[in-house]
Design goal:
Shape: globular
CATH topology: TIM Barrel
Helix content: 40-55%
Radius of gyration: 17 Å
Order of helices and strands: EHEHHEEHEHEHEHHEHH
Distance between the termini: 17 Å
CATH architecture: Alpha-Beta Barrel
Number of domains: 1
Largest sheet: 6 strands, parallel
CATH class: Alpha Beta
Strand content: 5-15%
Mean pLDDT: 96
Structural class: alpha/beta
Strand order of the largest sheet: 1-2-5-6-7-8
Low-confidence stretches: none
Number of strands: 8
Number of helices: 10
């Protein structure tokens, strides 16, 4: 079994911190995934009452901080990547890491992905179908044609109630050869990753996604990303 490390550039790691990328990558014998801000993206904070939704944790002593009290991590300013974003991209490139766009807006994700792909960085579009992102399918397809991998996951249906018909249509439009399936679980109320992936696969089979295409999206494409 290969375990692939990752870091998420929220405030807990100092936000857009290239040193965190270097240190984490140096500790791993395999390429790590570097997620851009998720719960500390301005986009997420604007659309969520809490920094960490309490239902994710379900612990009586847990007190979620309000989103309005959190300083967001800025990735794009005036339609361009910030200088700090560029430093992080350079660190990702230098370490052969993989970029994932996180919960920034789809327009920000498009700018970031284009810049990363120009630099030859392997890039994942983090569940672009998520309501808080909602990247148009034609934009996903353009970025996929440039080399990015749009991702969708079990949680989009189970937690966010996106219909399986819409998820399957997204996969068919972009094409499984450029798509990744994941679980995105870990919330207190959710199933384990293996259970979630099995359920997700069975639901997609019912939507006309073939077993061969499931293997491409769950095995082959992820393998391409983590192979140096």
């Amino acid at each position: 079994m290969k375990l692939i490390g990752s870091i998420t550039l929220n405030n807990y790691l100092g936000g857009l911190n290239p040193d965190a990328v270097h240190a984490s990558a140096d500790l791993s014998e395999h390429p790590i995934i570097v997620w851009f801000p998720t719960i500390h993206a301005q986009n997420f904070l604007d659309k969520s009452e809490f920094e960490v939704p309490p239902e994710w944790v379900q612990r009586p002593d847990f007190k979620a901080r309000k989103s309005k009290d959190i300083i967001p991590v800025s990735v794009i300013e005036n339609g361009k990547i910030t200088e700090q974003t560029r430093k992080v991209l350079e660190a990702i490139k230098a370490k052969g890491a993989i970029l994932a766009t996180g919960h920034i807006t789809w327009r920000e994700a498009e700018i970031l992905a284009r810049e990363a792909l120009k630099m030859g960085i392997k890039t994942i579009l983090t569940h672009p179908i998520y309501q808080r992102i909602d990247m148009p399918a034609d934009v996903q397809k353009k970025l996929a044609d440039m080399g990015a991998y749009p991702e969708t996951c079990h949680s989009m249906h189970f937690i966010d109630k996106i219909p399986m018909e819409k998820i399957a249509a997204q996969i068919k439009e972009i094409g499984p050869k450029k798509f990744i399936l994941s679980s995105d679980v870990g919330q207190a109320f959710n199933k384990s990753p293996s259970e979630a992936l099995e359920e997700f696969a069975n639901l997609l089979l019912k939507q006309g996604i073939s077993k061969e295409d499931l293997k491409i999206m769950m095995v082959d494409n992820p393998k391409k990303l983590i192979t140096k």
